[in-house]
Amino acid sequence: MMHHLNPADELAHIRAEMKRLKSREAELRAAFLTDPEMPRIGRWHKVDLLTERRTVFEPRLLPADIRNDPRFLRDRVTRVLRTARHVSKPESAPIEAGHLDALAMLRPAPRNGFLAGLLH
Q: Is 13 part of a structural domain of the chain?
């Protein structure tokens, strides 16, 4: 039997996992940038540290009368999906980030049989 998540729960889980991965990426990035002894060649990938320069426009450097002139301003409308916990059924607990690994959805349901205790 495959474990299926409601789309709202799946979205919240994916976002929690992305947050965890971005945090780990930031840790590794900081280590590569600050520790010259950090191994940069792995089994399948390598990390190169490059320095790039590009010209960027800085609107905050413009005079205030131009920055605040309504002729140069526009509204931007975006649609945002926010996830938040909600209580639906007392018997169903939310899945916390880190408690659902990549294979959890593929694991069969627990078995009640002669060798069931040996499977866990």
A: yes
Domain count across the chain: 1
- Both tokens assigned to 67: 């920055």
| CA–CA separation, 70 and 73 (whole Å) | 5
List, for residues 56-111, the tens digit of each pLDDT value.
Answer: 999 999 999 999 999 999 999 999 888 888 887 655 555 555 555 554 555 555 55
Q: How many CA atoms lie within 13 A of 2 on its CB side?
A: 5
d(CA 37, CA 116): 48
Whether 116 maps to a domain, the answer reads: no
Single pTM value for the model: 0.59
